[in-house]
Amino acid sequence: MKALVYHGAGKKHWEVKAPPQLIESTDAIVRIIKTTICGTDLHILKGDVPTVDAGRTLGHEGIGIVESVGESVHNIKVGDKVIISCITVCGRCRYCKRQLYSHCEEGGWILGHKIDGTQSEKVRIPHADNSLHRLPEGIDEEAALMLSDILPTGLEIGVINGKVQPGNTLALIGAGPVGLSALLASQFYSPAHIIMIDTDDNRLHVAQQFGADTVINPTHQNVVEVIQKLTDGLGVDVAIECVGIPATFKICQDIITAGGHIANVGVHGKSVELHLEDLWIKNITITTGLVNTSSTPMLLKSLQSGKISPEKLVTHRYSLSEIETAYEVFGNAAKEQALKIVLNAE
């Protein structure tokens, strides 16, 4: 088979690789139908995730068909069409019992990180019963692909951690795929006013189409002044950071109101300044986290009922064999006006 293989910082190649085999009785082998590229993959290629070894197949999102299962797999059967969760879940360890699946002692984020991932023709999925979600008939595959990682991330680490409530004023900093996913998910909780902040006017336009009430471009607007005016000088109730750089985390600290919540979703490759000298007296809550995907079954039901349309995030489509071209496009997202890229197996 062929796979997109990481060969150290800045190096990747679509190449022949031995197909995966069942190792444990709880494994499944899944033939990929659709996969995509995540911002985390770009962080790996930049060298921001040193725990990824050279020779690793990248990718942690996908839709596929189950080709074989181990003897201990009971809920998933050969021929099932499934969503591959970005988080592998044993279901038995102390962290799984707390629904802290991202820290599963036998799993967590291992696909495309500690074991070979989904940017390939086939992938081995450990703990298949807990780490695959059977896809009901009639569900759009591109929409379902967004449930592998990006939509649960926006909901759990952004919206739920940020404790978005009805009537809140919410600011999202970063209108990339994760920020837009958080924007979509936030509307389950009926915030009164949603503000999207980004330096890309095209993405701000998309955010307005997705439900943002106000958009701010820091390139030619003073973010703090605009938000102070919008909130009668109080600041926002919730600020969700969706980029992962010091400047966007600073914006969150500058615009949050007393008693507010800052939810960090972005993957940070270097340290940021935490202004506790300003925040301590404001009763601010700051949360961080890696998605647990505990919300995936609920999101799948919402998708079935038509309450959410994550397929709107898809802007580009390529065949799986064109993945190196797709990476170039995704790596120049602003220029290419790219959000999520779907890679289709031939």
From TrEMBL:
Top-level taxon: Bacteria
The keyword Transport appears for this protein: no
Co-factor(s): Zn(2+)
- Which GO terms of the molecular function aspect are on file? L-iditol 2-dehydrogenase (NAD+) activity; zinc ion binding
Q: Which top EC class applies here? A: oxidoreductase
Instruction: Spell out the PROSITE patterns in the cross-references.
Output: ADH_ZINC (PS00059)
Q: What is its EC number?
A: 1.1.1.14
Q: Residues in domain Alcohol dehydrogenase-like N-terminal?
A: 26-136
Which InterPro entries would you find in this protein's record? ADH-like_C, ADH-like_N, ADH_Zn_CS, GroES-like_sf, NAD(P)-bd_dom_sf
The chain's coiled-coil residues are none
Outline the extent of the Alcohol dehydrogenase-like C-terminal domain.
Answer: 177-295
Q: Which UniProt keywords apply?
A: Metal-binding, Oxidoreductase, Zinc
The UniProt similarity line reads: Belongs to the zinc-containing alcohol dehydrogenase family.
Name the UniProt record assigns to this protein: Putative alcohol dehydrogenase
What organism is listed for this UniProt entry? Answer: Xenorhabdus bovienii str. kraussei Quebec
Print the organism lineage: Bacteria, Pseudomonadati, Pseudomonadota, Gammaproteobacteria, Enterobacterales
